[in-house]
Write a structure and sequence with these properties.
By secondary structure, the protein is mainly α. The chain is built from 3 helices and no strands.
């Protein structure tokens, strides 16, 4: 059993090493790309400020860009807040539904167990077997 365990652990460690390496590489590349996107954004702001300063005074152009940036930031925060509220509502609804189903199953099981204990045991074994047979071969959760 020792060599088999060593082989399996080496395989798992190799897979984890590949995944960690890929995430590290992707993280570095995203960081580099973000740096260039930020640089481009700054140059667009500078260009907009220069263009607007030819039409308005430099102070007015700067205040206009600041106000536009502030408005866009507030809109993004509002959207984020609405999405978070929607996620909270969905999670609360799922939790309520799960609690109701659990209560119903427990009440039914207790009633069945009190009135017909042999039938309850047979149903439990049958349900366990059915759930075991319905699982896909590769669907085991290794969290």
């Amino acid at each position: 059993m020792g060599p088999l365990a060593a082989m399996l652990s080496a395989l798992v460690l190799t897979d984890i090493g590949v995944v960690v390496s890929r995430y590290r590489r992707n993280g570095a590349l995203w960081l580099l790309a973000s740096l260039f996107f930020l640089t481009a954004y700054i140059f667009v702001l500078v260009a907009a400020a220069i263009y607007l300063s030819t039409i308005f005074t430099p102070l007015t152009a700067t205040v206009m860009l600041a106000a536009i940036s502030l408005a866009i930031g507030l809109v993004i925060i509002g959207i984020m807040s609405a999405l978070n509220a929607q996620d909270r509502r969905i999670a609360a609804e799922k939790r309520r539904r799960s609690q109701a189903q659990t209560s119903l199953v427990i009440a039914t099981a207790l009633t069945l167990l009190r009135k017909q204990p042999l039938l309850a045991a047979g149903l439990a074994v049958g349900l366990g077997a059915a759930l075991g047979l319905m699982r896909k071969p590769g669907s085991s959760d290794h969290s």
